[in-house]
Amino acid sequence: MQDIQAIVDSIYDSMVPRLGEGKVADYIPELAKVDPNQFGIAITTVDGTTYTAGNALTPFSIQSISKVFMLTLALGKAGETVWNRVGREPSGSSFNSIVQLEHEHGIPRNPFVNAGAIVVTDIVLSGHQPREAIGELLRFVRYLADDDTISIDDTVAKSEQATGFRNFALANFMRSFGNLHHPVEYTLGVYFHQCALSMTCAQLSRAGLFLANRGRNPLTGHTVVSDRRARRINALMLTCGHYDGSGDFAYHVGLPGKSGVGGGIMAVAPGKASIAVWSPGLNKVGNSALGSQALEMLATKTGWSVFGA
Ligand code: DON
């Protein structure tokens, strides 16, 4: 039996001297205000126990990690037809790249690059007003984490709305190809709010637990998705969850994972645990610098890599 708390504590101790490494995202002005000298880690094992260290109870902006939850909702709503509008291949480009979209006729490479996530949000929006779609996502995440205190930070959403020129370009471009079915302001309104979900590492590690446990949340006993769907979402996280850093993350960590520019990473050790790390400073490809290092240490210490111990 591994002593998970001892592992989490030793990872935290190794990170303390390095606090502040990386560069905080500043293209969303509200995110630039976050103190970079923070690091949190939470692991929830499939028996439902949560182990924490550092700033694991400090809420942060989950940003692109929300794309996993929105994809889960979209697959529930539209099933495999989601894949008519978005691909399943790694992009090899940055999260907000526009170049591939023209060659590929407005069909984004995967659901985790911004363009793909915007299409996924457009799917969930169908038949709803934007505020209803935002409410649906918030209820879903609260249900997954079994925690009704989770909220959306409106200031962050507004900050991105005011400066999200790149996302407006991507959305307008896809609309011109007919791959966005709602007005750009509606879809992006929902997208900016989903990215502004504010969660702690502890909450996030619980929200991801269904992916570590064959689609069933052991905290509530609810089946969230089928075994097969959980496996497939994990496959997408492994291959596409870190954009053009996905290969490197698989090489060093070997776990399905999804990063966000708020500095969070959610990772899944199938059959074992769901993990959340957070430290605001980002590396060159926009993923948490210390968060990636911490997960590599975790994989080494636990032998949880999906490629073998
Ligand atoms: O759309 C954006 O640019 C942000 N709301 C989310 C990007 C993000 O988190 C990329 N992840 N590393």
TrEMBL record:
What residues does substrate bind to?
A: 64, 114, 160, 167, 191, 243, 261
Listed GO molecular functions? glutaminase activity
Single GO BP term: L-glutamine catabolic process
- Alphabetically list the UniProt keywords: Acetylation, Hydrolase
Question: What Enzyme Commission number does this protein have?
Answer: 3.5.1.2
The reactions it catalyses are: L-glutamine + H2O = L-glutamate + NH4(+)
InterPro entries the record matches: Beta-lactam/transpept-like, Glutaminase
Q: Matching SUPFAM superfamilies, A to Z?
A: beta-lactamase/transpeptidase-like
Name of one Pfam family that matches: Glutaminase
In which family does this protein belong, per the annotation? Belongs to the glutaminase family.
Oligomeric state and interaction partners are given as: Homotetramer.
| The name this protein goes by in its record | Glutaminase
The taxonomy runs:
Bacteria, Pseudomonadati, Pseudomonadota, Alphaproteobacteria, Hyphomicrobiales
